[in-house]
Sequence to fold (511 residues):
Amino acid sequence: MREAWETAEEGILLFSEGRVRYLNPAAARMLGVDREAVAGAPLLFALRDERLESLATRGGRAEFERGGRVIEVRAYPGRLHLHDRTARVRAERALAEERTVVMHELRTPVAGLLALVEALGTELAPEEEAEIRELILAELGRLARLVEGARWSGTVNPWPIADLKARVDRLLPGARGAVWRTPHRLRLEADGVFQILLNLLDNALKYGQWPVAVVSEAAPGGRLRLEVRDAGPPLPDYDGLFTPGRRDVQAAAHRGSGLGLAIVGRIARGFGGEAYGRRVEEGNAFGVYIPPEGWE
Amino acid sequence: MRQALDQEISRVIELFLRMASKTKEMLEEATRGLVDSDPGRAQAAIQRDREVDELEATIENEVIAAIARHQPVASDLRFFVTVLKAVTDLERAADYAAHVAEDAIALAQEPPLKRYVLLPQMARRLAEMLDLVAKSVAEKDAGAAMKVLELDDDVDDLYEQLTRELITYMLEDPRTIGKALTLLRVARSYERFGDHLENIAERVIYWVTGELPHR
Fold:
């Protein structure tokens, strides 16, 4: 039996009278101990944690972290079984992160849709009602593609960036005062660009200062810079804000969870571009670089 | 005679590991109390401080009695002197965990200034350092002690990063000064906690190699 334990992935530790009698290489690795040094020693020499020592005495199950690994311990009379659960825990954390991203992507458009549906309940001219119905259908279509996991990539017939203003204003009424200086046309999926501007404007309204502007301009390397500017104070770290889960002091204070910008970055990469943040004159600009083939 | 001395050394190491385990538990409870705005968990950390103090006194007594009984020399003498000094550092580290817990209770009375990210990172490094301190003592492992010194540099870097950010925070919005100052004190407690572990690691290296590390 011990020969099998020597090569097992599962960790085994045998003990009696409060002392270590045997532990296999897997257990030594998971506990981060030297087998030779702890053989015959009190149990605490191997476990290094009174809570695990107590578990060994009374039996049961527990999880603990050591050396960045998550270890599950099951205690039976005279023996401990150890399993490395790091992969499972990481998968659960990734799933939770994904769920948060989806919730974030849905929150703003859903709020906008509610406002549109409420507007339908008021007295509207027929053409206004038709316009709202069209907007609702367009938004629902976009959300459906989002849920189905569609990615924004590829090229389409050129369309003016300014065409998005009415759609953005409808869904994000607070952004109506923003000035659009966007003379360029794009060959990208409009839904992706719409989502980018929605997130950037939403952030500017929540954490920046007026005046707010949407600007497109040629950038080095044949690229186009499409960005949202506000008059907020300087931030210490612009690049870090695009990292999901990077919610340090500045991120939390000035740019929400950082998730909106992480989403912007993901869509931009789908276009073959990249997202950025920078200090401009007396304000901040967050935007995306669009590659040469994506604009005119 | 030698066997009796070895048994005393083993007994002292076991007590030291127990003290390190309780200190780690205090650190974890205090940090959870801070991150989850949970005064109950923070209070549990504070209550455990007395157990750490009692263990310090027990270990000191055992070490003095062992020196009197066995009059150790060379490596054995260095071991007892190392432990005698290390428990003082460990007790001070536990005090800093209790300070974090006290600040966590105060901070839990109001909505948090921010979602804490760097502070739990500091606490994770410190927990790792404590594991390595325990390993270095239990296994007479100078390599593990050297890693403690490296990790303390990480803790110092995180402390500086957090300090810069909190100062920016206060400059931009004076309403945040109260909470930001408390968070600065928490960060300072973590940083001092790490310094005490660094002291222990240096002494372990002296015990094992007979030389103090050059840094």
